[in-house]
Amino acid sequence: MRVLTNPHFFYLDQQDRIPLWRWHIISREHQINDEIRAREVRLVGADGEQIGIKSIRDALQLATDANLDLVNVAPTAKPPVCRIMDYGKFRYEQQKKEKEARKNQKIVDLKEVWFRANIEEHDYQVKLRNVLKFLNEGDKVKASVRFRGREITHASIGQKILERLSKEVAEICNVERAPKLEGRSMIMILAPKTNS
């Protein structure tokens, strides 16, 4: 018999011919069947009925008789809780639920709109439309007034611009953070109202 020296070709089981490197790639979050190291477990049947505390050997035998897997669902409990189930089907349904949850999840972005202290009326209206569009799409808006040079001495002008903006969009949003001066900018954050 020839022994291969390359570790990538060692096999865990000569009958199944599962390469060792493939075995380490597969990772599970639950212990199943022979991986469970407890002496006794609290056993839950395939239909969800409580069977009681059994030795690991008896629990494995019940799972084998039902042609299902023994899965450790609560390893930190005393004794660990194991359930008889089809592990492949369980993982498939779990992945399906996770995918559905990700699909229904709404990611809220923070959009920023800059104003100047000496902004003209038409420019203000354009920026206001952008703020309304972002809020209607469900995103938060960071409205900031940037001061250049000596404009910083008249911070009250920036305060008036942001207060005017918050009054004009008050129907569809809440002020999450009131106008506050940070460095050479005055910042206010608006969040859309929830429909609950």
UniProtKB/TrEMBL annotation:
It is found in: Cytoplasm. GO terms for biological process: ribosome disassembly. Residues 108-193 form the Translation initiation factor 3 C-terminal domain. GO terms for molecular function: ribosome binding; translation initiation factor activity. Pfam families: IF3_C (PF00707), IF3_N (PF05198). It comes from the Bacteria. Its main location: cytoplasm. NCBIfam families: infC. Belongs to the IF-3 family. PANTHER family: TRANSLATION INITIATION FACTOR IF-3, TRANSLATION INITIATION FACTOR IF-3, MITOCHONDRIAL. This is Translation initiation factor IF-3. It comes from Paenibacillus paeoniae. The lineage of its organism: Bacteria, Bacillati, Bacillota, Bacilli, Bacillales.
